[in-house]
Amino acid sequence: YAAGSMGTLDLMKKHFSRMTLEDFDHVKDLAKRGLDKIPNFQHRDDSKKVWNAMEEYVSDFVDFYYPSDKDIQDDYELQDFVKEISENGFIRLKQLTMPRNFTEKRELKNL
Asked: How far is it, in rounded angstroms, from Cα 71 to Cα 64?
């Protein structure tokens, strides 16, 4: 059975229409699908190492660039970008809610 190009697009639309912001968290997604319980699953183990390294890099970068939460709040370009994404960026993804602004460094790190 083959879905074809139009069928594939339909499947992708259905999948993306159900996505939430949490679905972009790789470790949570693995757990949600039960892949965190499979023994000797190298893809999960290796991808978690990469995910953790990226998380550490992003955290260090945000801490360096934004010394305080106030710096996040005062960055008008960042705030405008987040507002634009929340209003227009994921318009077709009904369940994907983005914050309209950031008030804490933690929010930016978790994005």
From this structure: 11
Q: Is the pLDDT of residue 1 over 60?
A: no
Please, what is the Cα angle at 104 between 96 and 79, to 5 degrees?
A: 65
Contact 96, 21 (CB under 8 A): yes
| Distances 62 to 9, 13, 38, 75 between C-alpha atoms, Å | 36, 33, 34, 12
The rounded Cα 54 to chain-centroid distance in angstroms is 12
d(CA 14, CA 102): 29
pLDDT confidence tier of residue 76, bands split at 50, 70 and 90: very high
The identity of residue 38, as a single letter, is I
